[in-house]
Specification:
By secondary structure, the chain is mainly alpha-helical. It has 2 domains: 30-156, no CATH class; 161-437, no CATH class. 79% of the residues lie in helices and 1% in strands. A two-stranded antiparallel ribbon has the order 1-2. Strand 1 (187-188) and strand 2 (194-195) form a beta hairpin. The longest helix is centred in the first third of the chain and has 41 residues, at 66-106.
Length: 440
């Protein structure tokens, strides 16, 4: 006997089966109440285990341990489940009152408030687990980690972090979190060429690069830390890296060799970025530029290695002065120089136009070599020019960008720094042009 089903009935049965299947898999859903209770209990146990290890023994032991923290977290979950935020607030206020009384009775013996505050936070996290278990769980883990990291954190602040480093950290935080958000993000000034948000971003970038180099020196030593930091920072901004390394040499002359290596290695990152941008836009253009870029990159590596491994400006075991992580004055100086370059570029575009590709590449290269490379490669990809013809304007942009780096090396660093970095940049530039001139 056959049974005919209308299309609507068949769709309803399929939908019913799918719903049943979904219900069968909902056992592990985060919407289930027991998941929230499990997260709350887990948070209490995790924080409680850490506190139990520091509870101590005898009459001087702390009042809260494993069981107290576990029960407190469950109390927060129960309060949220029964009375919502209002009851959770009342419970939290009561707990704070009890912990205040306990602290008042024992403050002469234990002046710390860490356990009391952690207990109140555990109650709140238990309540949060009822509604947002995915938010409560990582916060509980982070709390336990902070509590467990007491000794290394105290040792870092007291024995490792210096007063000047703390000052640098506060300046960087203010520049990033206070000043940067309120700086207008629009073009102003002559020819509408200046974007204050972009200029201040450059200031922050320079400070960050210098700080990375400072950290690398302390972690790896001056001879290897600075070159590594210079190469990595070059992918962000080679010009800013050169300026930051020049300022570092002014502050610590013994870092001359490694700083020179870092400055030249940042150019390797520039070459790599040009290759990546061109490859993503027009692989044909990359093949035409393979020899110039390859020769330039290898030359920069060889020149940097000369100062990183054979120049004795900074012995590996020599103690270094722990000054500031960066120079705010140097960062502001570089921002001013680049601002002047942007105004000059905008003026030349308005006065002479972009009729010639080489002229446009020359102007744009002063600020950014990658933009020129991308624009020329896109012309090749669109069939408006051949790859061989694109090599000339790209190398012109690379040349004018190198001129900007030469100016920054001369202005930001010492005479000795400039006398070593500038020849390296010129040699790398000649190596790049040799790929075209000699048909390599």
């Amino acid at each position: 006997m056959s049974i005919d089903l209308a299309p609507t009935d068949l769709a309803n049965r399929v939908s019913t089966k799918q719903t049943a299947g979904q219900r069968g898999h909902s056992v592990l859903s985060l919407d289930q109440p027991y998941v929230a209770w499990a997260v709350a209990l887990g948070i209490g146990l995790l924080i409680g285990i850490e506190r139990e290890r520091r509870k101590g023994e005898g009459a001087g032991r702390a009042a809260a341990g494993l069981r107290t923290f576990a029960i407190t977290s469950l109390l927060g979950a129960a309060s949220m489940e029964i009375g919502g935020v209002i009851l959770l607030g009342v419970t939290t206020a009561g707990l704070i009152l009890l912990t205040a009384l306990a602290y008042w009775r024992s403050h002469s013996e234990d002046p710390g408030l860490t356990t009391e505050i952690a207990l109140a936070l555990t109650l709140v996290l238990g309540g949060l687990a009822v509604r947002e278990p995915l938010d409560a769980a990582p916060l509980g883990v982070a709390t336990a980690i902070l509590l467990a990291a007491r000794a290394p954190l105290h040792r870092f602040v007291r024995d490792v972090l210096t007063e000047s480093e703390m000052k640098s950290a506060l300046i960087f935080a203010a520049a990033t979190l206070v000043v940067w958000p309120i700086v207008p993000d629009r073009f102003l000034g002559p020819f509408d060429a200046i974007n204050l948000r972009s200029v201040w971003s450059i200031v922050i970038l320079i400070m960050a690069i210098s700080a990375c180099g400072y950290i690398a020196v302390r972690a790896l030593g001056s001879r290897y830390g600075l070159p590594a930091a210079g190469f990595a920072s070059g992918f962000v901004s080679s010009s800013a890296t050169i300026a930051a390394m020049g300022a570092k040499v002014v502050a610590e002359p013994r870092l001359l060799g490694p700083a020179v290596a870092a400055a030249v290695l940042s150019t390797v990152a520039t070459v790599a970025q040009i290759a990546i941008v061109v490859a993503a836009t027009s692989p044909e253009t990359l093949l035409a530029l393979a020899a110039p870029l390859g020769i330039a990159g290898l030359t920069a590596v060889a020149y940097a290695a000369l100062f990183a491994f054979h120049f004795k400006d900074a012995p590996v075991d020599a103690p270094l002065n722990r000054g500031e992580a960066f120079s705010l004055g140097s960062a502001l100086l570089l921002a001013a120089v680049l601002t002047i370059v942007m105004i000059a570029s905008a003026a030349l575009r308005i006065w002479f136009g972009d009729n010639g590709l080489v002229a446009a590449a020359t102007i744009a290269g002063f600020a950014d070599a990658h933009a020129t490379a991308a624009s020329m490669a896109s012309q090749v990809a669109a069939g408006k020019m051949i790859a061989r013809d694109a090599c000339l304007p790209i190398l012109v942009g690379f040349t004018t960008n190198s001129i900007t780096k030469i100016v920054l090396a001369a202005m930001s660093g010492s005479r000795a720094f400039a006398l070593r970095v500038v020849p390296g940049l010129i040699i790398v530039l000649l190596a790049a042009w040799s790929g075209i001139i000699f048909g390599l």
